[in-house]
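S1.2 Input.
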Amino acid sequence: TNPSVLEFYGMQTHMADASNALSKFTDQQVQKFKSLLKRVRGAGISVPMLSVDNSAALLTPSLQHFDPHDLLKQPDGVDSRGFVRVGGAIFGQRPFAQIKPISTLYASVRHVATLGAGESVGYDRVYEAPATGAIIATLTIGFADGYPRELGRGVGKVCIRGNQYPVAGNVCMDMLMVYLGCPTDRTGAHNQIKVGDTAVLWGPMSETDGPHSGTDGVYMADDRVVTMDRPKLPGATGKDDTATRTDPNVQDGDNGQSGAAMKLSSIASTLKTTQSALTCGLNKTRVLRQYA
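S1.3 Output.
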């Protein structure tokens, strides 16, 4: 083969606005692509491969989709091969009724501590226990694993044993803390939480399904499976000489909300990002990705 000869492999476009059912841009884009394809073939150039639809284009019913027989047929009798690029839709990470989310992010409870009034946890001591004290659980995941720092200070919640608990203070590098409840509440569900329990940070599955249940798209952040280039700390409570402040988003008693569904779509909406950006942001060398 002569290395100076350029081999024409195929043509591709990307539907930038396909998920917008009211937009005319995609139809215009399709017509431009078909016009260019006709010119290329008219110049005697065979097009071995065509790829047009992404997840959104494939699932948006209002789009004027191609006639595959018309699009792939070539004058030389050797038809083009057509491909669609289904990315986020495989994991249900698109807002279409035809699909459902299957991606679940887990972590383990590695430490449970009772704080007295004024004691703090995490970077900058953002969370400070109220006068009644606080029970805090430490989870084996942090922003180095890809969990967004923006979900700290009570913005994010996790599900443990069927109840939701807010993130307490800032998300740390390889751990985060959640507020479980008040130490004087002896009847609350948080009293059942112990080291080794599974926490769901997002996803349709509950922690009772378990990280090894064989469901596709499971992510597990745990010191048993992440890269162990440094030890996981057993806890992150205590005080230093930094000025103290109270986290306004985590209040005494703001715990134990019932419901195991930690929707990835809701988290993405809160952070004004996409579901794919959140899952792609996970550190794959530290967070185990499991498939059936």
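S1.4 Remarks. Residues 109 and 139 are 5 Å apart (CA to CA).
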